[in-house]
Amino acid sequence: MKYKNILRMLFTLILLFLSSNLNKLFSQNDVMMQAFYWNLPVDTTNKNGTWWDTLSAKASALSTAGFTGLWVPPPSKGNWGISDMGYGCSIITTL
Question: What is the pTM of this model?
Answer without folding.
Answer: 0.53
